[in-house]
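Exam revision sheet. Question 4 asks you to relate a sequence to its structure. Input first:
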Amino acid sequence: MTERGEIIEEDKQGHLFWVKPALEKLLGRDKELILNEAEKIRHKYRKGLTARYSSNPSAFDNACLELAIRWYIMQHKTIDPKKEIEIQVWEAGIEKHCQQVQAGREVSFDDVMMGWAKEHAEGWRSHNILRGLYVFEKEQDYFMSIVRPPQQNTTQQTAG
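Answer key, structure tokens:
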């Protein structure tokens, strides 16, 4: 199964319930930073894409905002630090149980946590960013409305 397929399965099983409210908070809190990045993207690519979007300039603005949000999620590298730590500790708890069953004796949670962090934490965080991007894609219009300036939200709603 692909990593995206795993994330879709997690979503079907209800394991991503925490991602949407975490993204709402993150994007709402840092919307100015994201809007600044969208403006940089807009200026950088305006010349090359003017002809493509000449009949629909708001589509160009949307593409810039979407790219800025994706960039931000990837650069931020965390969606909800507290929840992510809780999940990683839970994962280490599962690992501890497996090691105890295999060894037939009690094992140190600290040792297991350190081992889990060395072996799995980086990959887990990368996978978690993909979870955030998946949830963003799934409800892209909603998340973009959180970041989009109010006058653009009104324009987008009347145009759509």
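Marking note for examiners. The CA atoms of residues 54 and 63 lie 14 Å apart.
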